[in-house]
C-alpha cells in the first residue's frame, strides 16, 4: 500500500468490510455515517481507493435510471492492518514484526484459550 487511507476512505472501507458485499456509490453515500464530504466528490474518493489497491470495481448495478459500478474491498481488514504495520515499521524484518506484535496482541485482552491456539499454530509452522 503506497499511501495510508484518509478518514473518508477508511469510513468507506469499514462499511465494505461490515457489509461484506459490493456496494454502489448511492449505497455508500447513504450508509457511511458522519460523512463530511460533498456527495459529488465521492467519485474522486473511490478512484483514489482503487489506485491505492484497497477496493476494486466488482460489477454494475441499476442506479436510478442508469447503471453504476459496484465496489468491493480488495483486502480484508486484517490484510489492511498488516499493510499499515509494514508502512509503520519499514526497518523491521518480518521476524522482528512477529516477535514484537504477537506479545502485544496477547497482552491486549486475548483470552488464555487464544494464547493456547497461538502456541498450537506456532508449533505447526
Short description:
The protein contains 6 helices and 3 strands, in the order αβααββααα. With 125 residues, the chain is of the alpha+beta class. The chain folds into 2 domains: 67 residues, Arc Repressor Mutant, subunit A (Orthogonal Bundle), CATH 1.10.10; 35 residues.
- Described by the principal axes of the CA atoms, the overall outline is elongated
Q: Give the integer mean of the pLDDT values.
A: 90
- Beta strands, count: 3
Multimeric status of the protein:
single chain
The CATH topology of the largest domain is Arc Repressor Mutant, subunit A
Residues in helices, as a percent range: 55-70%
Strand arrangement within the widest β-sheet reads: 1-3-2
Beta-strand content estimate: 15-25%
Structural class assignment: alpha+beta
Amino acid at each position: 500500500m503506497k499511501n495510508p487511507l484518509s478518514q473518508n476512505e477508511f469510513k468507506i472501507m469499514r462499511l465494505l468490510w461490515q457489509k461484506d458485499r459490493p456496494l454502489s456509490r448511492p449505497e455508500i453515500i447513504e450508509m457511511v455515517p458522519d460523512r463530511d464530504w460533498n456527495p459529488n466528490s465521492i467519485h474522486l474518493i473511490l478512484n483514489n481507493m482503487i489506485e491505492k489497491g484497497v477496493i476494486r470495481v466488482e460489477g454494475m448495478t441499476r442506479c436510478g435510471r442508469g447503471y453504476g459500478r459496484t465496489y468491493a474491498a480488495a483486502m480484508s481488514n486484517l490484510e489492511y492492518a498488516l499493510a499499515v504495520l509494514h508502512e509503520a515499521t519499514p526497518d523491521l524484518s518480518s521476524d522482528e514484526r512477529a516477535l514484537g506484535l504477537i506479545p502485544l496482541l496477547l497482552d491486549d485482552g486475548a483470552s488464555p484459550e487464544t494464547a493456547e491456539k497461538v502456541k498450537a499454530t506456532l508449533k505447526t509452522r
